Structures are given as C-alpha cells and as structure tokens.
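The aim of this short unit is practical: by the end, you should be able to scan a pair of folded records and say something sensible about each. We start with the first protein, listed as its amino acid sequence and then its structure tokens.
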Amino acid sequence: MPPALFLSAGLAVLLGSAAPLAARATDLAGLPAYRGRVDLFTLTPRGEIDGLVLADGLEVKTPPHLSDAVAAAVRRGDTVTVLGLKAAALPLVQAMSISDEATGLTVRDEGPGWPAAVRHDDGAAPPEPRRGLRARIRLVLHGMRGEVNGAVLDDGTVLRLPPPDAVRLGAVLAPGRVVVVDGLSRSWSLGTVIEISAVGTAADRMTPVGPAANGMEQHR
C-alpha cells in the first residue's frame, strides 16, 4: 500500500520521516479538530500506546514516545479533541495534540525526547500462548503511513502482525469477518494484545504469520 496522503487546511504532506517536522512547523490552531469519545487504546506488542480509537471508528495515531503522557492524560470513555492530519482515504488521523475534556490535560507532540516511551507494566499479566481463538474482526488498524498493521476484535483485543503479512492477509482481516487466531497474548491495564503467529477463517485453514511464515519458506 502506498503511503497515505494526509491533509490539513491548505497543507498536504506524505507521512514519513519528514512529516513530524512539517507538522511541528504548522500552527496547531490551523489544523482540523476531531472530537469524540475514547473507545479504546491501541497498543504495540510491547504495551506502548500507539493510538486511540474513537466511538465513531476514527483511528487516532500517536507516536510511541508519547505513550506515557497519553496514558496519564487520557482515559477510556472521556471526550477528547484531536488536532491533526487526516488521511484522504482512511478514517485515520495523525494527532499533533489531544485534549481530554474530563481531565483538562492536553498532550502535544513536540517530537522524540523526554518523556521516553515506556511499557505499561502496571497490572501486566504473564504472556500467554493462545491457540484457536475464534472472534470477529471489528476494525483494521494502521501505521503512521497508512499501512495495515493489525486489527481490533469485537471485545477490544488488539491483533498485531507485520505489515507485509497484513497486506497478504487483507481479505482475512476484513471487518466483520470471523477469524481463528494463534499467537502470544499479553495483557496490561489498558488492554490486551495478541502477536499473531497464524490466522485463518477456520482451524483447518490457518496461514502462518511473521517468523512462523518465514520458517516455512526456509524449509520448502
């Protein structure tokens, strides 16, 4: 998938290495605002927050270096206002700032630096292998460049897999589709992530993902 084109008032940038610099140079007051209720946090396999999903399905991307700040300022169920750049063809926003109406706190992306990204080990459960988990895909998740890199199940569990595998398995990860998943599950106070090792539409139609898929290729 080509990089997603993000638009703001009078500004168009391709998300990539130059995008954060372009965004920080932009007056935030001139950026579009998106308001909604926080439905869930999206987490990386390390437990870092890399975004939010609002109740209307809008996916809000945040960089990992803001993980701790977002966790402190934003709460699930609160109404937030997001200033940022929206993808032209996806319900996806790269957040430059997030303001939580209930806490009164605002998180602003000033670029990598202090505070550093942290893993949310508070309340973390030991990793747990999952096999044959059957569930429905609620929505597909994306990276900063608009590439598919995971999905959310109906219960809010986040599935993660490398973007090349996500593209290859796009038909399987379609919203509304029931899938069967094998992988390693990790849970934190903010949510649960399953790093997929295999996925399919039925237990007898599973496709290996990530290192498992590479191992199969090497042994063919």
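Turning to the second protein, read its sequence before its tokens, just as you did above.
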Amino acid sequence: MRKEAFMTKRFFKIPLLQTNFTTRLFMLIENPIYYYCVVLFIIFCFSLFIFSRELPGGLRIMTAKSNSMSPAITKGDLMVIKNANNWYEKGDVVSFYAQKPDGTEEIVTHRIYAVSGNVYITKGDHNDAIDEQKLRPRLIIGKVSAVIRNVGYIAMFFKGSLGQFMCVIIPGVLFISIEIFRIFKYFEERFQYHNNGTKET
C-alpha cells in the first residue's frame, strides 16, 4: 500500500501534468531556457498585435520600408499614424493604399503635394516626380504624427522569417525537448525505484 501511494504521488509529478501555477512560475524563473522561450514569444506576439491593427485613438504603428521620404523619414523608421477623418491638407505626410502594377495593394507613405478637387496629388520628398496615381480620401490610412528613428528595424525583424524562426520555432522546439527529457527522466527514476523495490523483496 505504501509503495502504491508513493507511486501515485510520483505520477502527478510528471511535468506536463503539474497544474500548480506557482510551481510552473518558479520553474520559468529558475530555468534560463524557459525564460528565453517565454520572453521571446511574448515579444513576438506583442509586436504582431501592435503592427497588425488600429490602436485606441485611431492610431496605427507602421515601419518605413523605403527612402522615398528621405530625409524626413528613412527606411527602418517607426511611424505613428493618426486617422484625421479625411481632414488632410497640402504638406501633410500620409500613409495610404496604392495599387501596384500587378494589381495588388501596398501601403505607401508620401507627402500631399497638391489638392485637386476631391483628390490629392502625392510625392515622395526624395522622388523627382509626383505619384502617377491620384489619391482619393477613402484610400488614406492616416497622417504621420510622429517618427522614431530606426526602431522600425526591430519590428521588421520580428515580422520576418528569421524573427519568426527565433521567436516561435526555436523556443517551441526547446520547450518540447525539455518536457520530453523530463518525462523520460521521470520514467527512468520510476523504473529504477521499481527494480530496487523488487530486489528488496
């Protein structure tokens, strides 16, 4: 009976079956690999959340992907875009949806060069010519209200294939490998205990 009770207690110490939150929390803090996995995964999820949707107050966070607005905005800069409810004027730097030659859409950030009736004419500060496509208000995402230099490279990294590999795949493989190792270790200890008990009998 004592042996069965002991084995029952040991069974519930399998890592994947532990439900004690405090125990798991201390394990995360004490084990640097767990800490690395959790922190990277949280950063990855946070970056996806921030850069994929509109935030409260009509704000959006975007990254400049070219130097067409240099020197005001350069590649890798982080831009805070605010929806101005179609109230834009000459000189404003706006982000908008533009159609590419293949028919797909891309987000472009250029300055309003002129206003012609109910459409805007845009131009990149670094470009020699104005944009061919006239901009209608419904295509405008918002006006650039702030620029943070070079911080956008961090977002580009996490959204890229290398960032996803480092923040999702590697932590996932490490986490699963550690849990499998702990389970095998548990069964090895259980097997040794069983053999020792048999010898004593």
